[in-house]
Amino acid sequence: MTHVCFTLQVDPAKLDEYRAAHAEVWPEMLRALAATGWRDYRLFLRPDGLLVGTLQTDDFAAAQEAMAKTEVNARWQAAMAGFFPTLGEARPDEGMLVLDQVFHLEEQLDRL
């Protein structure tokens, strides 16, 4: 199991709209994420628009690839594009800046 953390920048002028869109994500999008290996997926939003996402998956590249092949993902990415103006022509799921893990408490405790 891999833990993934990524960031994106939401347009600060659209935070309320972004929150509303994620309060009721389309059921078919939720099912597609689960079916393609995205588990315990969470998004956190700072008041300046910094978005931090975390998830668990067996293989992040494979989960992204599988999701990219779904019809619902194409529609969702198009619907979300306006929230991420700094990405230009890139889709939001292509603009994720994946962070390197530098500390994990349980991993270090296990080594003691």
From TrEMBL:
It comes from the Bacteria. InterPro entries: Dimeric_a/b-barrel (IPR011008), Rham/fucose_mutarotase (IPR008000). Pfam families: rhaM. PANTHER family: L-RHAMNOSE MUTAROTASE. This is L-rhamnose mutarotase. It comes from Actinoplanes hulinensis. The lineage of its organism: Bacteria, Bacillati, Actinomycetota, Actinomycetes, Micromonosporales.
